[in-house]
Amino acid sequence: MPTRKSAGPSPKRSGALTARVYERLREEILDGVHPQGTHLSIQSIATSMRTSNGPVITALHRLAHEGLVQHGRGSGYRIAEWTPLLLDQLLVVRRALETEAARLAARLSNREDIDELQTHIAQMEAMVAEGRRADAERIDVELHVAIAKLSRNAQLIDALARSHMLEIVRRRLLANAPRGDFKNMARNHQILIDAIASGDPDEAGKAMHWHLRSKSSTTGNA
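== HTH-type transcriptional regulator LutR ==
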């Protein structure tokens, strides 16, 4: 009788493997484990994570879509390189996207949505009071993600998700630079939330624009 070939991993298992590889690589990149420009060997990653090449390739493709790695024909995958000029340009793009997200949030959000944003402010206040800058900055990013989701625009949310990912990279690269008004971090964001809660798209858009513009292109909490 012919030998029965073993089936490959189920779609569910394959998806779980890809997610595991993606999360680990993403964490390593954001933590600066791999220097910028480092070549990523698909086979080496697969071996170290005890998986096949497929999940690794899929994970790297997703990371390339997010801007954390770069892919070149014939040269494979490398950790993305972020110059000061590129980071400044990305900040300009983020400012434009977030301004529109704030306008849409003001028009579409309800009382429950605003209350949810306020929970982020409360958490931020607690972290600032305890001097936990890293945790406060994490909540900062989560707050901006929450505002983006209130736009109810899937394409805008996706674009801002990539932008916020790169904001984490920007802050890591500038970890030793002056970091803005930490003590008033929650209060500065409260002004933004109040503008969104007003229901006036123009007021919310202006508040977001100046909230981001008031920060240096290379420093500060946004």
